[in-house]
Amino acid sequence: MHNTPQFIQLHQADHASLAAEATAGLLAPAAAVSPKFFYDALGSRLFDVITELPEYYPTRTEAAIVDQHGPAIAQAVLSACGSAPVMVDLGAGNCAKAARLFPLLEPRRYVAVDISVDYLRQALHDLQRRHPAMGLAGVGLDFSSQLQLPAGLVDGPALVFYPGSSIGNFSPDAALQLLRQARTLAAGGAMLIGVDLVKPVAQLEAAYDDALGVTAAFNLNLLNHLNRLLGSDFQLRDWRHVALFDAVQSRIEMHLAARQATTVRWPGSVRVFAAGERIHTENSYKWTPAAFTALLHRAGFAQVQHWTDPQGWFGVCLASG
Ligand code: AVI
């Protein structure tokens, strides 16, 4: 049997609502814009480069954990979800992380979710050639506001897969909401999730302020994206990348700081920034294993297992029940 992938785009934010959201953030007394504005075409490529930097340990550490503990993880998943589960991949991108688990999990259906279904087309067509009998679906959805899939895609206990520590880009309250919705979606199955852990500040800050300046370019590129979206006149050379760990909130904060007093204009709006004033662009929360396990329990999961690397820098958790 040779299947073909199914594609569904759910309520994509339009240009006007994205522009209104960015404008509100820039005009707030403490200017802030959502990290989703990092990911235009260039920003997505810069993020891929970040994952290969020597200082950015999360991607390779997570991959090493999954490589080393793959059989144990798979056994735990199959005992929670039953054989041939449906696998739902949140923020699937090129689907490569999930595909590495296919030989171990043999899912009967793979549902890739990402903000735009267009990102998923090529990856799912390629996957279908390699796995002709597997049911494949791509869903375009911004699940940060609500995680709900069209009826029929998940029919029975599922594995919700959320690697990459993107949960760290949510505040603890928003993370709890997302985990609750993921548990509902799993329908008695399980969630396999990657989480970045608290570690010495020097390693954390280097990971978000690398020597090559790729993360700085990723952060500054957000201004190019805003210039296109809003018609604004941000001059990139007037801004500086800042990445600092806030130990109280247990998060890396990224900001763009004005090098000198600068005025930015766009149709209908103007914002004056004092020298040193910042635009807050991202939080990346770092969890302890105990605090993240407690969060998963608060989300309703009864059992939590976790695997880590020898330094205890990154966690892969399986939550079920
Ligand atoms: C996507 N997310 C998990 C990354 C992180 O580490 O918080 C985004 C990132 N920002 C700067 N570098 C990477």
TrEMBL record:
Residues 19-319 form the Histidine-specific methyltransferase SAM-dependent domain. GO terms for molecular function: methyltransferase activity. The lineage of its organism: Bacteria, Pseudomonadati, Pseudomonadota, Betaproteobacteria, Burkholderiales. It comes from the Bacteria. This is Dimethylhistidine N-methyltransferase. Gene3D superfamilies: Vaccinia Virus protein VP39. NCBIfam families: egtD_ergothio. One of its GO terms (biological process) is methylation. Keywords: Methyltransferase, Transferase. It comes from Pseudaquabacterium pictum. InterPro entries: EgtD, EgtD_Methyltrsf_superfamily, MeTrfase_dom, MeTrfase_EgtD-like, SAM-dependent_MTases_sf.
